[in-house]
Amino acid sequence: MSEELTVIGKPVTRVDAYEKVTGQIVYGYDLTLPNMLYGKALFSPKAHAKIKKIDISKAKALPGVVAVVTGADAPWTHGEAVKDKPFLAHGKVRYIGEPVAAVAAEDEDTAQAAVKLIEVEYEDLPVYIDPEEACKPGCVEIHEDYDGYRKAPFMVRGAAPNINEHFKLRTGDVAKGFAESDLILDEKYYVPIIQHAAMEPHSAHAQWDKESGRLTIWVANDAPFRALHEISEALAMDKEKIRFINPAQGGGFGSKGGLKCEPIAVALAFQTGGRPVRVKFNREETFISTLTRHAATVYCKSGVKKDGTLVAREMTIYWDAGAYAEKSPTVCIRGSLPAPGPYRIPHVKVDGYAVYTNKPVAGSYRGYGIPQGAWAGEQQMDELAIKLGMDPIDIRMKNIFVEGDMSYWGEQLHAVGLKETLIKATEAIEYGKKSPINKPGLKIGKGFACIQKPTRSPTTSNAGVTVNAQGEVTVFAGTVEIGQGCNTILSQVAAEELKVPMDKVIMHQLDTDVIPYDASTTSSRSTYHMGNAVRSASIHAREQIMEAAAPMLEVGVQELALGDGKVFAKDQPQQSLPIGEVVKRKLGINGVVRGEASYTYEIGKDLDLETGHSDHASAFYMYATQAAEVSVDEESGRVRVLRMSAAHDVGKAINPLNCEAQIEGGVVMGIGSAIHEELIIDATGKVRNPSFLDYHLVTSLDCPQLIPIIVECHEPEGPYGAKGLGEPGLAPTPAAIGNAVADAIGIRIYDLPLKPENVFWALQKNKKSAA
Amino acid sequence: MKKQLNLNVNGQDYEVEVEANRLLLQVLRDTLDLTGTKEGCSIGVCGACSVILDGRLVSSCLTLAAGCEGKKIETIEGLAKDGKLHPLQQAFIEYGGFQCGICTPGQIMAAKSLLDENPKPSEEEVKEWMSGNLCRCTGYYKILESVMAVVDGKTDPNYAFRKRETTAKIQSLDVYKSVAKTSSD
Questions:
Q1: pLDDT of residue A771
Q2: What are the distances in angstroms from CA A698 to CA A625, A670, A677, A726?
Q3: With an 8 Å Cβ cutoff, is B175 touching chain A?
Q4: Which residue out of A20, A278, A671, A763 would a mutagenesis test of the B interface target, given it has the greatest number of B Cβ atoms within 10 Å?
Q5: Residue in A516, A390, A396, A514 with CA at minimum distance from that of residue A451
Q6: Peptide bond before A753: cis, by omega within 30 degrees of 0?
Q7: Which residues of chain B neighbour A14 with C-beta distances below 8 Å?
Q8: A282 closest CB neighbour out of B42, B141, B166
Q9: What residue of A is the nearest CA neighbor of B79?
Q10: Cis (ω within 30 of 0) for the bond into A440?
Q11: Residues of B with Cβ-Cβ distance to A109 under 8 angstroms
């Protein structure tokens, strides 16, 4: 680019700052609609059971109750890849926490009291907690009608019971590879269920207007267009009849993408005579009835030559899907595909199985399957190095993806900034240098891990950009501000292309009646896809302004330039017009110039379902290395992270302050998943710790010294060279900490989290076997 | 049973009639429409509902509204005076001390109650005090930086671009200090 960038690449203050620090911004659950009713759901107390009878008569008779609904009133199912999930349970329940019935009442207390009056008779069915058990021959199908469900075309059903997706990757011949290897390691790793725990619990409002046939849903949903599509398909209702409006969103991390409170609110809204209904989950309901991250059991076998060259890697991953498919099929595909790691490996075999169990539903979670694969693969890289007497850096340097490499899934890679992240992250914590601490009972160690993450492809983003006669710019973009800072990034893009100050740019509220289609705010796709769309829409608006200005300034379009909100002649800058003035002269005082654009990243060949190969599996790849220094208290088993570095290849940092913020937040979330987070579910399928008292989030006291490092490996298709950043922040964190713990105590721990008792028992076991 | 209450919120008197078992959080949000105070966990763990009651930081989700009669209640809505932001609000903007923003009112109220009592806390004191306010987005670094910026008088109401000092304050902590003190905690 010949022109100098004015606002791209600058640490601009966030555009949503004022309304957030003053408490003025309205989140989903803050919203009160005129004449609103309060909805509450009855959740299943059984993990797997037939519903024999539901009696709602007592609930209906309670004064103040307006509607009571059950599955009979809402005979619809929905789901992203598999249409397997009823709005309210149909005939059976599949997990503790599944919505069975719901009440709308004049106030919340009445709604809650009425829910308690609903009587349900259940008949128990076998409960499956472990995915490896659930797919053994002879097991009862949790979804007996699975074959009759509507499904996405890329789905491959497993041969065994309860498998909703079987992903296969086949490259080379692993048997031959292992035969040629000098050293083979074969281990089992485990990652438990964790939860997003966004600070705002889930809620949704719905209103059905019988006269117009319109259904309006107010909800903080990451992907309103996809949610609209799901509702429209489920109800067989025209998309034009459905409207989604997004209030502000208090975090998501993947939990607010599919339909959670929405189906309950919609089922109630059809029965309230046009009155709007709010369904608000409390924290416990959010824990048991929204979404979790997949537990994963990962079998990882690697073969290497004496010099550290990777020859073969075979992985079998069981993704614990919970009771409904949600995003399990795509987590299984996009998590299993790069699970062998960012390395050149000639012989690769991966089998990923997403398996139904009678547990809360698992789905998308920041990192989308990468942390689970990395926990296994990156720890095994260290073990291989140690067994070969190599430095863990050297073994990775020998095999790591570099520019132009052919990946094991058949795609030639470009814009690979991985090596730089590895060097910078390990240098930042002085990897290889021994800690000065020498205290009996306290062990210090260092470790690191590398990852590569794809984005969801192919997808489309549309955008509109208007410029009015006051010179104000409005951006119409369907990216949801979930806290990640997209409104600031997209404002920067529009401000850059139209050369206006940031405070002249407004992001329009997300309303599907007004905003053009966007695939979703997921998968770190927004800066790249929506950034490209907003950039092109801004250029489209700019071209119209320039064309209009040329005759006004009596020069050719080619001789015009933009700067500081004005159009001017390049050789006579004093000959200028504010852009608003151009719009006014052309279209009048209420005139608006509108630029429009659409951006789609087209993939090449579709994923081959037999080999998992694709010549373009992802629009771009994000690379990262994180390194950790930890202390382990030998007496208590407590792991403390002392310092971490996190080097992320972002392509181009459109806003370095925001990139830093994303890295910091991601790493700290990753530390939680590494050292204490775990949703504990007992043999009956009951969540034992559904509160912040028992499910521990990281606090300010647990945060180590952190060095965020931005690496910029220009992505030619991205806006200004940008890729994405939101998701990889926590992906290598547990593996880096796991490697550091192993370095500290000389014992490898294969199961997360690295909580004191797990580490303590590993130390005790080691003592015993040494004695 | 309904009960009549006189509440003073941000210097303004309100007369409300609510059920006797109503919590301060419910009255603020549902009765007075002051939704800046947030609900995160409902059990006094997360700090999203933090308000200042007669100068003391409390979780409004654990405080009965009936017990607040005659006391001064401060919420996020009362912080900016005459269109001028409180220095903490200014610092949270400048130093990016928020992301989704839902915990931000609680974070700012918690920090205010600390600084009201002790305008010059150490970094360690700030880190410890703020540990009662959970945040899932930021990793806390920029929140702590924001508070320290007020302590050190480093906010600039006229600033446009933040000077790039990469998490300088928090980075200066000695990583080994905490483990060197005690081997078992």
A1: 78
A2: 21, 9, 9, 19
A3: yes
A4: A20
A5: A396
A6: yes
A7: 93, 96, 98
A8: B42
A9: A22
A10: no
A11: 19
pLDDT, chain A, mean: 96
Residue partners of A184: CB distance under 8 A and separation at least 6: A178, A301, A302, A303
Helix (H) or strand (E) holding A134: helix A131-134
- Asked if residue A435 has pLDDT above 90, the reply is no
- The CA-CA-CA angle for residues B173, B122, B84, to 5°, reads 115
CB contact under 8 A, A250 and B89: no
A15 lies within 8 A of chain B by CB? no
- How far is A74 from A193, CA to CA, in rounded Å? 30
- How many angstroms separate the CA of residue B101 from the nearest CA in chain A? 5
SS (H, E, C) A271-296: CCCCCCEEEECCHHHHHHHCCEECCE
pLDDT (0 to 100) of residue A4: 85
Strand partners, A310: A304
Give the other-Cβ count within 10 Å of A1's Cβ. Answer: 7
Three-state DSSP state, A585 = helix
Chain B residues in contact with A692 (beta carbon < 8 A): 40-41, 43, 45-46, 134
Domain ranges of chain B: 2-78, 80-185
Tell me, rounded to whole angstroms, the distance of Cα A115 from its chain centroid.
33
CA distance A170 to A168: 6
Query: For residue B66, what is the DSSP state?
Result: G
Contact between A703 and B139 using a beta-carbon 8 Å cutoff: yes
Instruction: Give the residue from chain B lying closest to A694, CA to CA.
Output: B45
Mutation for A interface: B61, B85, B112, B141, most A CBs within 10 A: B141
Tokens at residue B82, please?
A: 């005459």
Which residues of chain B from 114 to 153 reach within 8 Å of chain A, CB to CB? 127-128, 130-144
* Residues A312, A142 contacting (CB under 8 angstroms): no
pLDDT at A101: 98
Provide φ and ψ at A43, rounded to 5°.
Answer: -105, 145
Q: Give the count of beta carbons closer than 10 Å to the beta carbon of residue B18.
A: 18
Q: Which of A275-279, A454-458, A624-628, B75-79 has the lowest mean pLDDT?
A: A454-458
The CATH architecture annotation of domain B80-185 reads: Orthogonal Bundle (1.10)
Both tokens assigned to B161? 């671009």
Structure tokens at A541: 């608006």
User: Which CATH code for domain B2-78?
Assistant: 3.10.20.30
Rounded alpha-carbon distances, angstroms, from residue B139 to A313, A371, A488, A697, A701: 35, 18, 20, 11, 11
Structural domains of chain A in order of their starting residue, each with its CATH number: 17-25+459-600 (3.30.365.10), 31-125+196-289 (3.90.1170.50), 127-194+296-363 (3.30.365.10), 420-451+622-771 (3.30.365.10)
- A754 CA to chain B: closest CA distance, Å? 17
- How sure is the predictor about A485, in pLDDT bands with cuts at 50, 70 and 90? very high
Strand partners, A684: none
Which residue bears the tokens 């003053």? Answer: A22
Q: Does A657 reach chain B within 8 Å, measured CB to CB?
A: yes
Q: How high is the pLDDT of residue B183? A: 37
Within 10 angstroms of residue B71's Cβ, the number of other Cβ atoms is 15
Q: Is the pTM of this model over 0.90?
A: yes
Residue B176 has pLDDT above 70, yes or no: no
Residue type, B101: G
pLDDT attached to residue B157: 55
Q: What is the pLDDT of residue B165?
A: 39
Which tens digits make up the pLDDT trace of B132-144? Answer: 999 999 999 999 9
Return the structure tokens found at B143. 């929140």
